[in-house]
Amino acid sequence: MGEGLFIVLEGIDGSGKSSLAASMADRLSPRREVILTAEPSDGWVGDAVRRASAEEGAPLLEALLFVADRAHHTERVSRWLAEGKTVICDRYYASTLAYQSAALGDGMMGWLRELNDKVVIRPDLTLLLDIDPAVGMDRVNGRGAASKFEELEYLKRVRDAYLRVAEEDGFKLIDASLPEEEALAQAMKAVEGVTEMI
Length: 198
Ligand code: TYD
What we know:
The chain is α/β, with parallel strands linked by helices and about 200 residues long. The protein has one domain: Rossmann fold (3-Layer(aba) Sandwich). Helices cover about 60% and strands about 15% of the residues. Strands 2-3-1-4-5 form a 5-stranded parallel β-sheet, sandwiched between helices. About 35% of the residues are buried. Bound molecules: thymidine-5'-diphosphate (TYD).
């Protein structure tokens, strides 16, 4: 069994994480056994997360469920890594730090970190796809979507929190407004950088 590699992609909605994750998997799969996975997960706690998100107005419950889902999903990730697989995960603990601190208030960041520290394993590499929230919203919902003031203000707070976490935890920033090929080239360069080190 070889060494596994754990790569995480983070970013606000519309940053292009999912398609970058798929392109990275395509590039890596001739040389490595790649597992593409995501949070909220496809497990039963992930279903509970989606159910809680649909019932608005329970931000604390959602925060706890995101972390519970992560605890459950991390068990699977650990097994894949132990089998020497390369795991590409669309969202991980930084999503909770960014989104839930934006929802619950900055003062909750320390608590969210503590909670996550108990359940996560350190990724070998985290890429943060950084984008102006107005551009991200228009990409997801069509032009003019960014005029939804409340959502835009929320995503601005999420982005600010992401950038702080990225600095503290040494994430690699990728400018998500770049053409997809260019973002992919940067991501692959970062992967080569960590595989040389391990
Ligand atoms: P996701 O399925 O990644 O949505 P998308 O494909 O649109 O990016 O995530 C669903 C939503 O859940 C997304 O708005 C981000 C949010 N989320 C959190 O708020 N906290 C978390 O810990 C995670 C994993 C996701």
